[in-house]
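Folding Query — how this chain folds
Tokens — whole-number codes for backbone shape
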Amino acid sequence: MNKQTQGIGMTSQRTRDRLIERLRAKGIQNQHVLEAMRLLPRHLFVDEALASRAYEDDALPIGHKQTISQPYIVARMTEALLAEGVPKKVLEIGTGSGYQAALLAQLVQQVYTLERIKPLYLQTKKRLAGLNLRNVRCKLSDGTWGWEGYAPYDAIIVTCAAAEIPTSLIEQLNLGGRLIIPVGAADAAQQLLTLKRTQQGVTKQKLEDVLFVPLVRD
């Protein structure tokens, strides 16, 4: 691990450990999620000017009116995704900074991730390659349609709020597969939901109230 990855001062391992203790105090229990977040250098996923704030439990801007999600929400969504076992193949809608994809790469066999904003896509693809994450495949695309070429998926995670749940994502789930998605208008209340595809249809569970940037259809 090089010095940039290790971090110093406000990006040091001690600072990261304090964040993990805050997440544990907020109710995150999955030890695999907590350990992966403890080791993942979040400061490499934000602008250098914001690196000193990388281990605060806050969302931070990454440009193009997008954010890197609050660590608690990342942990909560990842824990929900793993709640019924570890999925082998996961689709992420909204690559953004690449932090969620990089976290998933520590926990599952294969990650597919979609980003519609070209500068973010190019920057993040380079960042993930620099971290030698060979089990993450990126694509520049409108995420509302999913990624049919690699479907079906054991789980899908959406990191932006949909006004309504895209049926294409449900259709790209395996039976028993889980969709973790925030639902609601950008200027209204949003709910983080877990949906599960079953032979009888789709079950739905609310996790908590959230605030995400909107899922945009091109």
Remarks:
- The mean pLDDT is 92.
- Residues 13-25 form the longest helix (13 residues).
